[in-house]
Amino acid sequence: MALFYLIRHGEPDYEAVSKIGFYGFGRSFAPLSELGLKQMEEMAEDSRLLDADLIICSPYTRALQTAAIISRKINKEIVVEPELHEWIVDKTNSITSSEEVAMIGKEFQDYKGVYPEGQDMRWESLSSLRERIKRVADKYADYEKVIIVGHGMAFRTLKYIENIAPAEIVECRYERGQEDCEYAFNRGIKFV
Length: 192
Hints:
Elements lengths: L1 E7 L5 H5 L15 H10 L10 E4 L3 H14 L3 E3 L17 H13 L15 H14 L5 E6 L1 H4 L13 E6 L18
Parallel strand pairs: 1-4, 2-3, 2-4
Antiparallel strand pairs: 1-5
Helix pairs in contact: 2-3
């Protein structure tokens, strides 16, 4: 059984990508904001991280920056896991506004992540998200301590978490094949 330190990336700067016309999947390129950089510098001082075996992270820019800051502080290897990315808000990759993101996020919440019978929705289902994240987690279940840098919705498939703030660390015991946890559908989530 592994101890995972689930670390949500620092606050992103979506304005940086919006102003150059990056929407849909382009939002994945959003860097950390000034506040996000500061959050991560402070969080990387947490003594729990010192004896981790390695750092795995999402391929999104904000997570990569977060992992790099931690790696620099604790001198641990970073492994980028392509499947550790955030929930896919729009499989058609045609979103052009934050309002659409919020609308689709609300739809995911309303349907509890399950497609209505006979329908395929634009968003990734909860079962698909959970399977993808567990595939990654299973690869590291035999390590002692692993830092996982990623995203709130993805982390809620591994442990019941009402809300995880930017730069927050949540400890999670994980073993391959463990039962699915309850997923926290939280109306307070901002999809922007």
